[in-house]
Amino acid sequence: MKSLKVITYYGELREHELVTQAGKALQFLTGNANYPNPVPDLADFEAAYTDYKTKLEKANKGGSRLDFRQKKEARIVLLDLMRELSTHVNLTAKGVGSVLESSGFIMANLDRNVGIPGIPQRGRLTDGDNSGTLKWAVDTVPDAWEYEYCLGTRASEGIPIEWGTSQKATQSYGNMLTGLTPGVIYHVRVRAHNGKGDSDWCEPFSRMAR
Asked: Is residue 112 very low, low, confident or very high in pLDDT (cuts 50, 70, 90)?
């Protein structure tokens, strides 16, 4: 028998769906005796929820480029806290359905056999807002919880790419790379991750930093 749990990744929700889901979890968990010591603290979660909601409304009412950037940054913070909090729910509830339901998070679909995620497709790099920055994106991979990516360079054509330390991202698009050297061609590879494991790395994609 499969263990009951709530999902821990909410990056595929649309903007207002994310606000609704975060608000529901906050409401259900506040004063909930099933979760006496939530991690992270609900005060921190509420602050991130309010911050994202406020910046979303400001950006979507004719906001500036700065407003849209701040909205995206606030979304990432909220998603990270939702992942931590929903993971705490799963660890605390220990598979008890009624306790899980009381958290306000979405129950995982246990009727579908989820395997290792597929390899990310259509990798692309675009110029960032400032010199020395790029943004990477891949098509969203079904059932992926997060994405791991590496940045690399090569000394000359035909030489293997030298990859740096891998990093994690909670969404498949709009991920900023900073501190790059203008005129240098950068390569990126990405793989998807969920509870069953990691996909293979995608084919590297590249662009010159401006």
From this structure: low
Q: What's the whole-model pTM score?
A: 0.54
> For 109, phi and psi rounded to 5 degrees?
-80, 105
Token pair for 138: 């891949």
- Domain 124-208: CATH superfamily, name plus number: Immunoglobulins (2.60.40.10)
Transcribe 147-175 into DSSP letters: EEEEEEE-SSTTSPPEE---EEESSSS-E
pLDDT digits (tens, 9 = 90+) for 22-56: 999 999 999 999 999 999 999 999 999 999 999 99
Domains in the chain: boundaries: 15-101, 124-208
Q: How many CA atoms lie within 13 A of 69 on its CB side?
A: 8
Give 75: exposed, middle or buried? Use CB within 10 Å, 0-12, 13-18, 19+.
Answer: buried
The answer to whether residues 6 and 29 touch, using CB atoms and an 8 Å cutoff, is no
Q: In Å, how far are 32, 67, 127, 142, 166 from 137, measured between CA atoms?
A: 38, 21, 12, 15, 15
